[in-house]
Amino acid sequence: MLITIKRIKGLGVFGDFTAPADLPAFARYNIIYGENGSGKTTLSRLFAALEAGAHADYADLEYMIESQSGALSAGQRYGRKVRTFNADYVEANIGQFHGPLRHILIIGEANKTLAEEAAGERATYDERSRAIAAAERAAEKLEAEKGKVFSAIAKTIGEATSGTNLRSYRKPNAEADFARARDLAPLLDAQLKAHRATVHQEQLECVGMPVLPLQPGDPARPFADVAAALRVEIVALLARTAQAGALRRLVEEPMIARWVEEGVTLHRAHNSDHCEFCAQPLPEARMAVLAEHFGVEDQRLKADIERTARNTRNLLDGVAALVFPAKTSLYAELRADYETAVEMAERCRTALVDQIDAAAAGLDEKLLNRATAYARDIAIDPKPLTAALATLAAVIERHNRKTEGFEREKAEARTQLQRHYLSTIVDQVRDLNAQIAVQKTIGTKLTDGAVDLPDPRSLQALKDSFEAKQAKVSSEHAGGAALTDKLKIFLGRTDLRFEAGAEGYLVQRRGKPAKRLSEGEKTA
Predict the structure, then answer these.
(1) pLDDT-derived band of residue 74, with 50, 70 and 90 as boundaries?
(2) CA–CA distance, 477 with 489 (Å, rounded to integer)
(3) How far is residue 201's CA from residue 406's CA, in Å, rounded to a whole number?
(4) In a 10 Å sphere around its CB, with 0-12 CB exposed, 13-18 middle and 19+ buried, how is residue 129 labelled?
(5) CA-based Rg of the chain, rounded to a whole angstrom?
(6) At CA 253, angle to CA 248 and CA 256, rounded to 5?
(7) What is the spatial distance between Cα 518 and Cα 493, in angstroms, rounded to a whole number?
(8) Are 152 and 449 in contact (CB under 8 A)?
(9) Whole-number pLDDT of residue 287
(10) What sections of the protein cross the membrane (predicted)?
């Protein structure tokens, strides 16, 4: 038992301490008190160093202490055990109060094998947990890389379908559309160009169809029927003649015949019996011969020719006046087809105009030579122009359908562009998904266990096993209850409890982690 401290030198605040004469000797129980920094902890550390005879922090320490076993000085081991309870003891044996406190474990020889098995299983569990975490990180990295692929393609699609950076098509849209899409394939260059043009187009007006002239007074009669009937009529007129006693001179000279016919008509209209050209009386016999030459049937033939000639000229004017809409009135992607169709229609129209013009010239010739019959083949074939106009109308119809369903056309163009650009990442996404699946398979295998693993059990089974074995060689659960009872006796209340955790005891206050322990509670 220690009796008294005589001298201390080189120990913190006790730089050079000599006990006064009236310092009482130690009793069985002693109280040492003083202000903060006065040396209470420093003195307790001196007591803790007596058993070893040296202080780790003060190599030049000197002291002289009397005990029942004799005087003690620096460098001299104290033969009795000295137990010092201070902050250093708490730190060394219990730990910090802000985390779990250390378990009290009791392991005997009989449980050594069990403890080693638990340690091995815990090592396997930890190694497998790290591998699972690595697989999860790898999968997350691949998912992030896939996300970048979808973000990039969403930007491309947004710009292609809106033409502006202020777009509403984002990564989630691309991912959702990709997941729903089936049979993705890239568009042909012409299709891609057409769809890109459509989404940037403004809506145009419908375009009227170019129509061939119809028979006057019979708008329901098709142009082809009118042209065919006119051809037949012209051929018949050229073959007709109404001359019974024709004058050779007038037959051979159509221009003179026309001049004489007009003269006869004028003299008859004015009831004149004198020639207006030579001022001589008109011979009755000559007038009778001319009347026979220009008879009633001849006049009927003349009237028929003139009527048919007018109809022919009207048809010719109608075909010549056929108007084709400007190509700029159609959507851009249709203009090439439209221009080709217009060129064909123009060629067919020119050919038809030439045919009708030739037929009209034949009628003019017949008018001057009514006494002569012609067996001539008149070619008026509207079929090529009709077919060319049908091709032209088909292009215009495409334009008009697009105008009538313009928003639908735009929506379809956007959909096709989306599918086109999504098709460009199919291989990349498929490869990333395969790599992600590999990492997830690794994680699942390590989590659920497998026969080809060194330990085929699942992660949870390993955890349950080593925790059960640890429980068999550990008094932590019983220790927690025993410590709680001791704490109750020491403090006189039950609000603080020791609960065993995975890494040590947890100090609970009314079911929650205890914080800001008082000094008395820490001591307890």
Answers:
(1) confident
(2) 19
(3) 10
(4) middle
(5) 61
(6) 110
(7) 14
(8) no
(9) 58
(10) none
Look at strands 62-67 and 14-18 and give their pairing.
unpaired
How would DSSP label each residue in 382-450?
Answer: -HHHHHHHHHHHHHHHHHHHHHHTHHHHHHHHHHHHHHHHHHTTHHHHHHHHHHHHHHHHHHHHHHH--
Answer for the pair 238, 373: CB distance below 8 angstroms, yes or no: yes
Other CB atoms within 10 Å distance of the CB of residue 441 = 12
> Is 105 strand, coil or helix?
strand
C-alpha 510/C-alpha 213 separation (Å) is 103
Residue with tokens 């096993």: 465
And the tokens for 273? 């019996």
Q: Which residues contact 27 (CB under 8 A, 6 or more apart)?
A: none
**What pLDDT, in 10s, does the model give residues 231-266?**
888 887 787 766 544 455 555 566 776 776 677 667
Residues 351-380, mean pLDDT to the nearest whole number: 82
- The candidate with the shortest Cα–Cα distance to 147, out of 427, 428, 419, 414, is 428
Please give the order of strands across the beta sheet that includes 62-67. Answer: 14-18, 2-11, 62-67, 70-73
Q: How far apart are CA 51 and CA 45, in angstroms?
A: 11
Pairing, β 2-11 against β 14-18 = antiparallel
Domain locations in the chain?
A: 1-84, 243-294
Output the six-digit token pair for 222.
């098709």
